[in-house]
Amino acid sequence: MSTDVATAPTGPGPLRTPTRNSRETAIQGVFYGAIALFAALIVFGAIDTHGFLTMTNVRAILSSVAFVGMVAVGTALIMISGNLFSLAVGSTAAAAAMVFLALLPHGIVLAFVVTLLMGVVVGAIQGFLVGGIGANTIIVTIGAAGLIQGVALWASKGATILPPKGDTSFTWLNGHIFTFAVPIYILFGTVVVLDQYLRRSRFGRQLKLVGENIEAARAAGIRTAWVVIGAFCIAGFLFAFAGLELGAFNESGSLLIEGTQTYDAIAAAVVGGIAITGGRGSVWQALGGAILIAMISDILLLRGYSEGIQILVKGVVVFAVVVLARLNRMRAES
Amino acid sequence: MTENENANPKAEPGASAAAAGTTAPMLSVRGVSKTYGAVRALDDASLDLGTGEILGLCGHNGAGKSTLVKILTGQVRPDGGEIVMQGESVEFRTPLDSQAKGLAIVDQELALAPDLSVEENLFLGNFDLSLLRRPGAVRRRARDLLQRIGLRVDPRSPVSALSIGERQLIEIARLVGRDARVLILDEPTATLSENEIERVFAVVRELVREGRSTIFVSHRLDEVLDLCDRVTVLRDGRVVSTRSSADIGHRQELIKMMIGKELPPPQRSDAARVTAGAGAAISGLRVPPAVVDFSQDVKGGQIVGLTGQIGSGTSEVLRALAGLEPDARGEFTLDGKAVRLGSPAAALGAGVAFASNDRKGEGLFLEKSVEENLVATRLRALSRGGFIRGRELKATARRLVEFVKVDPRRIDDTVEHFSGGNQQKVFLGRCLDRPDVKLLLLDEPTRGVDVAGRAEIHQLIRQAALAGVAVLFASTELDEILDLSDHVVTMFGGRIVASLAREDTNAELISADMTMSHERGEVAS
Question: Per the CB 3.0–4.6 Å rule, which of A83, B164, B301, B512 could disulfide with A137?
Answer without folding.
Answer: A83
